[in-house]
Amino acid sequence: MTTGLEALQQPPPYRTIEPFLGEALVERLLIYADRRQNDFVPTRLSNGEVNRDVRVSHMLRDFGDLRQELEARFIDVLDWAIRELNLSPIDLAPLELELVAHGEGAFFNQHIDTATDHAAAHSARALTGVYYFHRRPKGFDGGNLRLYAMAPAMDGERRNVDILPRSDTLLLFPSWAPHEVQRISCPSGAFLDSRFAINCWYRHRWVS
């Protein structure tokens, strides 16, 4: 039997779904990102600051006419993900979505997604979904998402697992899981050669 400490010394649970949205929707997302590329802004930390020593990428929160369709697809897998990851039931608040472009030199140091919540909120991030897509042929290297164990093992090493950002793949993991986005190389510098991801946070509603 695995003890609580032993569980903390292993990488957190995760699941992937591939394919998820299908190539037709990937193409629509790429067209939308291209059309809106001037509206992407530098990503910020939980304190609202842009800190290029911690995180480098650009984001857009407006999904236009695509939002309703995307939300429906993300919600469809929620019950399955809760069972697979052995999570407590989620009283779902509105989904939190952002579209992130990771170009040359982009990265995000180790963090947890629940750190962005604030005391006045009436919901908290419980489950993180990261949907990867990119154009073909792929124009970048790197950009793995590394999940870390909560605690080091007996040998002092902190176990981790890397998930490759394959196009049309949804990655799901608990929002409390420590993780990082490893540095991206995008030699062309072209916006559409970026590593694109839709971050979806399933928020649990609570009453103060």
CATH class: Mainly Beta
Discrete helix count: 4
Roughly what percent helix?
10-25%
Could you give the order of strands across the largest sheet?
Answer: 1-11-7-14-5-4-2
What percent strand? 25-35%
Silhouette: globular
CATH topology: Jelly Rolls
Low-pLDDT segments, ≥5 res: none
Q: Tell me the distance between the termini.
A: 37 Å
Major β-sheet annotation: 7 strands, antiparallel
| CATH architect. name | Sandwich
What is the N-to-C succession of helices and strands?
HEHEEEHHEEEEEEEEEE
Explain what this protein looks like in three dimensions:
- The chain is of the alpha+beta class and about 210 residues long.
- It has a single domain (about 15-205), classed as Jelly Rolls (Sandwich), CATH 2.60.120.
- Helices cover about 15% and strands about 30% of the residues.
- The strands form 3 sheets. It has a 7-stranded antiparallel β-sheet with strand order 1-11-7-14-5-4-2.
- The model has no long low-confidence stretch (mean pLDDT about 95).
Features:
Jelly Rolls; 31% strand; alpha+beta; five-stranded antiparallel beta sheet; 208 residues; globular; 14 strands; seven-stranded antiparallel beta sheet; 4 helices
Which secondary structure elements does this structure contain, and how are they paired or packed?
Elements: H1 4-8, E1 15-17, H2 23-35, E2 41-42, E3 55-56, E4 58-60, H3 67-76, H4 78-85, E5 96-102, E6 107-111, E7 123-133, E8 141-142, E9 145-148, E10 160-163, E11 169-174, E12 179-181, E13 184-185, E14 195-205
Antiparallel strand pairs: 1-11, 2-4, 3-6, 4-5, 5-14, 6-12, 7-11, 7-14, 8-13, 9-10, 9-12
